[in-house]
Amino acid sequence: MAEKINIPFVDLARQFRNLETELSKTFVDVGRSGGYIMGARLESFERKVADFIGVRHALGVADGSDALFLALKAMDIGPGDEVITATNSFIASAWVVVAVGAKPVLVDVAEDFNIDPALVEAAITPRTRAIIPVHLTGRPAPMDEINALAAKHKLFVLEDAAQAIGARYRGKRVGGLGTAAGFSLHPLKNLGVYGDGGLITTDDDALAAKLLKLRNHGLRNRDECEIWGFNSRLDTMQAAFAEIKLGYLDGWNARCRHIAATYAAAMKDVVQVPVDQPWEECVYHNFVIRTDRRDALMAHLLENGVDTRVHYPIPIHLQDAAKDLGYKLGDFPNAERYAKTMISLPIYPELTDVEVNHVVGAVTSFF
């Protein structure tokens, strides 16, 4: 009897084992250096990731949520202001707006799960200060339309690129498509560290200078505090690990794109699959299929050793925390429908072809 295949939704230890020699040496090097906060190793990673994305500035911060929060603070967004974002994202895309004292204004999304520019324009008011497009699942949002709206209404554009490092839109990497961008380096992300971590990218010199102070207590130097700031720094050790991984990122993303293409070709006749457009290069942080038989399919896959997830089963406007925003069931029909039909399949570079084919067989056999 053939051994049963079990495919976890994520398996972070596989990647660690592949890099263990490099990571161990770096751990020793940083440990022996005695420098664990800020310093040359962080600056080296920041320079390399800025070059990778194609921007002038990259700043390491404590996590992806802080990246968005600090960017909003640097834009002087606060009480009385409104910020438009998508309702189908992780809750951090909205709570960062609340945290700076502003109001999140939620809108529905299109077939690709990304924010619908037509609905963004309808939601703009005299209080609107910024738009946060979310590059959900690693697929770039429609940035040409969003930037056109921002220019027309004099708004900031803050990319929530937490799931999309390395993705391209019309040949340019996400993270360099708006006023600024926030990335997550959470272990589950395409470029993940061994704990929490985040990045802010921007081409705006003044914004970058302000962010350098905001992330480090508002300090001008060791003894002088110029502005009230925060303590949100990417640890030196994590930055050194991220620098190692950055060298592999394009290869990892290419592998995920290959797996996604295999999934899509094999499953397109039985479930709704994502479709790449000519102008985008999605990095497939998640590979999301849709079916009206979602729960039964997930149970079938689990029986066949395939672990799955739903991202995200409760849209932001239906969360208890969002009650004060005044939204109700039915306000955003696309996001609500997708939340009931979506399944995220395992997708990470370390999946073997045998495992990929097993996932395909498990899905297609259900139908």
Structure notes:
The chain is 40% helix and 13% strand. It has 12 helices and 12 strands. The protein has helices at residues 12-33, 40-53, 64-74, 92-99, 117-123, 143-153, 205-214, 236-246, 249-267, 294-303, 333-341, 353-366, and strands at residues 57-61, 82-86, 103-107, 128-132, 156-160, 168-169, 172-173, 180-184, 198-202, 280-281, 287-290, 342-345. The strands form 3 sheets. The protein has a 7-stranded mixed beta sheet with strand order 1-9-8-5-4-2-3, with helices on both faces. Strands 7-6-10 form a 3-stranded antiparallel beta sheet, with no helix packed on it. Strands 11-12 form a two-stranded antiparallel ribbon. Helix 2 packs parallel to helix 8, helix 3 packs across helix 7 and helix 9 runs parallel beside helix 12 (353-366). The model has no long low-confidence stretch (mean pLDDT 97).
